[in-house]
TrEMBL record:
<feature type="region of interest" description="Disordered">
    <location>
        <begin position="1"/>
        <end position="38"/>
    </location>
</feature>
<protein>
    <submittedName>
        <fullName>Uncharacterized protein</fullName>
    </submittedName>
</protein>
Amino acid sequence: CAAPTATPTPPTTTGSPTTSTATPAGPSTSTTPTSGPP
């Protein structure tokens, strides 16, 4: 039983860093449209 529980642990750590990288990319796009109207 201990073996299967340890398997899901490694993949979870790899996914966390990937999500954080996508967050900073979002704000950059929002800055572009702001310069359009003014």
